[in-house]
């Protein structure tokens, strides 16, 4: 027996049990194996008690279960069958048929045949990722420090030396190889590949192929990277390399006995959006992460991906590509496995019947208080810290703890069972760590190297916590139940109303409420310390943590474009006392805004942010106006690069389903005619052009004739973006499409030169 200490890199089903990759303290990459039988369960309706009350579907009969035993006994895979009792989350202990599979690699194929042969049975623990099963049994997780006892290459015991909830875990010294084509493959045909590792960076042409493959093979063997970080690696680069190396395969896998796993592209509908996931290429023994196919890579980078792998238990290259919803679902599965709770193959809980009045009352959503339109000074924004997850944890809201139809007679809020629920148990350590990280960020100086990792971790956790609420009501969530989702919003509305009452009792004016945040002001209150007594009072009344997001020097709440008298709940911009700018609902935040428009609006706000208070903002308006003049002149004189004018929109349906084609559909049709079709959920890039069809797909081959760009349309977009910023400073409401700068209020009047400049801009002669 030998003892190894290091980091767990990967776990997957191999030819003999599990394959485990360990990066040892001395820098060795060890490939180990371990015997690890896996078990799934089947149950019938006849032996499940209490389920009829939950309106569950039929679950087969005892005769089906006996037939299933006989069918399983005839299979070629080595199995161990037994009768057992396990805990169903809603029904409690139930008798089940236990099927232990000796080789984990055999489970997917066996279960596929079994479920097809016996569709009336209910299945549990049937399709769980092997990393979650392994983590639940041994308490380990990806990238954890661990101690392993081995005999030869066979793992005998493994013990975690750290926790996923450690604030500053020690990360392994990974070797990273970056690969990217020399251009975007969807826009042009790449001519070479750029290699980056250590301090080396160079470009290799695709031709001749033999030299390219020989160079890459040498790097893979001598440098032996732990991760390939690619650009368009899933969708172009790795498939291209696999195609070129068919005769002489590249050692992309570190494990030569394993196959490269490829997953097809897919489109699905979730949360009111059509979502596209590109094809995937997974490696064995080393990771592959495609920056442009990783779900949130550009939000939290590798640091966030590593942290998500640690807390969700999913492999690194898997967690990079799945949604935060899959991450939170994996955490719930891990909790269930550790508690001995059965994990259903498919969701079983149906919504209890409601009449119209009950449905409207139960499903009211979050509380929104329309803002007071206009410009305001010294406004504090206070937010509950992860309000909905905090409500779930604090009030023990979980699918199995909710008592449908039973409400507190005094508050009218839903009642819950006293036993700690599965969802609150899962969320509590996540909430505690995110709060600890946010507290650390407030104390760390800007130069501290930990800030980058803390910020990435906080962002990754934010998405997990945001998603956990939606998953309570998601139709396919294994542990979802709509009544628990409705209970969270009910507690949220009550909490925000109590916070509003506390603010008004202390003399504050409430300008706006939005689900979990509140904007307030009070004469002579301008520092964070002034608002601390209110935060203490809200904590006392609600029991939930609340924090001061900041105090604005000034903030502008904007009206609807269609009617200036109507406020819009989530459309505002402002500047905190720190100088940080916050915007919501304006062009700067829209995904389809061209970079040229976005940059102009950001520059306008940067100028206004120099004002020390709201009273001095009008002094900066001439400078902002001059900026817009210059940018508009650049546009009209052709000095804006075409790539800055690209509009990005998502296809919501198949092209043939569009009755009146949108600009995005017209551009997608152009690509489809050139044998480059896009699927629903994919982003199409295009430019507005003169004549018909009025757009040109950016990814069409050939050079773009810049003279065909529809400058007038982009000018209108720029003027609309400028109008958004100028609107709060107008002396009168804006009643036309374009900004009425002649009505703009400026201190001490405006000079004749400024007035003439405004007239020139409006008339288009600037």
Main traits of this protein?
Nucleotidyltransferase, domain 5, seven-stranded antiparallel β-sheet, alpha+beta, 5 domains, OB fold (Dihydrolipoamide Acetyltransferase, E2P), 766 residues, 19 helices, five-stranded antiparallel β-sheet
Biggest pleated sheet: 7 strands, antiparallel
Strand share of the residues?
15-25%
Q: Helix count, per DSSP?
A: 19
At CATH level 2, the architecture of the largest domain is Alpha-Beta Complex
Spatial order of strands in the largest sheet:
19-23-24-20-25-26-27
What average pLDDT do the residues reach? 88
CA-to-CA gap between the ends?
Answer: 82 Å
In the CATH scheme, the class of the largest domain would be Alpha Beta
Radius of gyration, in Å, reads 30 Å
CATH superfamily of the largest domain: B family DNA polymerase, palm domain
Stretches with pLDDT under 50, minimum 5 residues: 47-60, 732-766
Query: How much helicity do the residues have?
Result: 25-40%
- Helix-strand category: alpha+beta
The beta-strand count equals 30
Can you tell me the overall shape?
globular
Q: How many domains comprise the coordinates?
A: 5
User: What would the CATH topology of the largest domain be?
Assistant: Palm domain of DNA polymerase
Topology (elements, then pairings):
Layout: E1 2-13, E2 18-24, E3 29-34, E4 38-43, H1 62-73, E5 79-88, E6 92-101, H2 107-117, E7 122-124, H3 130-138, E8 145-151, E9 154-160, E10 176-181, E11 192-197, E12 200-205, H4 209-222, E13 227-230, H5 233-244, E14 261-263, E15 266-270, E16 273-277, E17 280-282, E18 287-290, H6 297-312, H7 316-319, H8 324-339, H9 356-362, E19 368-369, E20 374-384, H10 387-394, E21 402-407, E22 414-416, H11 422-443, H12 450-473, H13 482-505, E23 509-514, E24 517-521, H14 528-542, E25 546-559, E26 567-576, E27 581-584, H15 595-608, H16 621-636, E28 647-650, H17 663-673, E29 683-688, E30 695-697, H18 711-726, H19 752-763
Parallel strand pairs: 10-13, 13-18
Antiparallel strand pairs: 1-2, 1-8, 2-3, 4-6, 4-7, 5-6, 8-9, 10-11, 11-12, 14-17, 15-16, 19-23, 20-24, 20-25, 21-22, 23-24, 25-26, 26-27, 28-29, 29-30
Helix pairs in contact: 3-8, 6-12, 8-11, 8-12, 10-11, 10-13, 11-12, 12-13, 13-14, 15-16, 15-18, 16-18, 16-19
């Amino acid at each position: 027996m030998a003892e190894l200490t290091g980091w767990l890199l990967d776990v997957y089903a191999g030819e003999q049990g599990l394959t485990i990759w360990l990066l040892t303290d001395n820098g060795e990459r060890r490939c180990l194996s371990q015997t690890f039988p896996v078990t799934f369960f089947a149950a019938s309706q006849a032996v499940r008690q209490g389920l009829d009350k939950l309106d569950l579907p039929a679950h087969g009969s005892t005769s089906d279960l006996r037939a299933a035993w006989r069918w399983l006994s005839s299979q070629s895979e080595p199995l161990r069958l037994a009768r057992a009792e396990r805990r169903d989350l809603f029904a409690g202990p139930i008798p089940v048929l236990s099927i232990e599979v000796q080789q984990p690699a055999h489970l997917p194929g066996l279960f596929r045949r079994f479920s097809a042969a016996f569709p009336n049975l209910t299945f549990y623990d049937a399709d769980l990722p092997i990393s979650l099963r392994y983590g639940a049994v041994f308490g380990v997780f990806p990238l954890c420090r661990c101690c392993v006892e081995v005999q030869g290459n066979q793992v005998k015991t493994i013990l975690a030396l750290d926790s996923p909830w450690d604030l500053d875990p020690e990360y392994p010294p990974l070797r990273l190889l970056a690969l990217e084509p020399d251009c975007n493959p969807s826009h042009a045909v790449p001519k070479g590949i750029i290699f980056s590792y250590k301090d080396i960076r160079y470009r290799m042409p695709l031709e001749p192929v033999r030299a390219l493959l020989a160079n890459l093979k040498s790097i893979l063997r001598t440098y032996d990277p732990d991760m390939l970080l690619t650009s368009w690696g899933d969708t172009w680069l790795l498939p291209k390399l696999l195609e070129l190396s068919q005769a002489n395969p590249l050692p992309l896998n570190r494990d030569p006995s394993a196959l490269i796993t490829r997953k097809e592209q897919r489109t699905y509908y979730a949360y009111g959006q059509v979502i596209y996931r590109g094809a995937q290429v997974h490696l064995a023994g080393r990771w592959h992460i495609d920056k442009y196919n990783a779900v949130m890579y550009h939000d939290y980078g590798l640091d966030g991906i590593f942290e998500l792998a640690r807390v969700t238990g999913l492999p690194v290259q898997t967690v990079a590509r799945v949604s935060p919803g899959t991450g939170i679902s994996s955490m719930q599965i891990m909790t269930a496995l550790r508690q001995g709770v059965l994990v259903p193959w498919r969701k079983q809980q149906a919504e209890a019947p409601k009449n119209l009045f009950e449905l409207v009352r139960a499903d009211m959503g979050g509380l929104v208080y329309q803002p007071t339109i206009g410009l305001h000074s010294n406004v504090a924004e206070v937010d509950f810290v992860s309000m909905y997850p905090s409500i779930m944890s604090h009030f023990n809201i979980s699918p199995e703890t909710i008592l449908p139809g039973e409400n507190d007679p005094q508050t009218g809020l839903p009642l819950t069972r006293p036993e700690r629920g599965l969802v609150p148990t899962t969320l509590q350590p996540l909430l505690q760590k995110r709060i600890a990280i946010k507290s650390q960020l407030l104390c760390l100086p800007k130069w501290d190297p930990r800030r980058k990792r803390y910020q990435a971790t906080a962002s990754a956790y934010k998405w997990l916590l945001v998603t956990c609420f939606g998953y309570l009501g998601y139709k396919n969530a294994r542990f979802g139940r709509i009544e628990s989702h409705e209970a969270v919003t009910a507690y949220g509305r009550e909490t925000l109303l109590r916070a509003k009452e506390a603010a008004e009792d202390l003399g504050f004016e409430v300008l706006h409420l939005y689900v979990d945040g509140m904007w307030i002001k009070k004469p002579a209150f301008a520092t964070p310390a002034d608002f601390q007594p209110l935060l203490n009072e809200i904590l006392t009344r609600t029991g939930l943590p609340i924090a001061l997001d900041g105090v604005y020097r000034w903030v502008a709440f904007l009206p609807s474009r269609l009617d200036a008298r109507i406020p819009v709940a989530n459309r505002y911009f402002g500047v905190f006392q720190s100088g940080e700018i916050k915007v919501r609902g304006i062009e700067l935040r829209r995904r389809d805004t061209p970079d040229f428009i976005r940059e102009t609006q950001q520059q306008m706000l940067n100028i206004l942010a120099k004002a020390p208070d709201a009273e001095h903002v009008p002094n900066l308006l001439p400078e902002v106006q001059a900026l817009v003049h210059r940018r508009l002149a650049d546009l009209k004189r052709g000095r804006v690069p075409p790539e800055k004018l690209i509009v990005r929109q998502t296809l919501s349906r198949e092209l043939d389903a569009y009755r009146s084609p949108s600009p995005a559909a017209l551009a997608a049709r152009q690509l489809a005619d050139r044998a480059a079709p896009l699927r629903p959920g994919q982003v199409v890039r295009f430019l507005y052009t003169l004549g018909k069809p009025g757009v040109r797909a950016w990814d069409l081959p050939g050079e773009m004739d810049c003279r065909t760009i529809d400058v007038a349309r982009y000018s209108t977009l720029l003027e609309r973006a400028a109008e958004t910023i100028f609107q709060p400073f107008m002396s009168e409401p804006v009643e036309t499409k374009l900004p009425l700068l002649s009505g703009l209020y400026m201190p001490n009047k405006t000079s004749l030169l400024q007035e003439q400049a405004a007239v020139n801009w409006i008339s288009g002669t600037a």
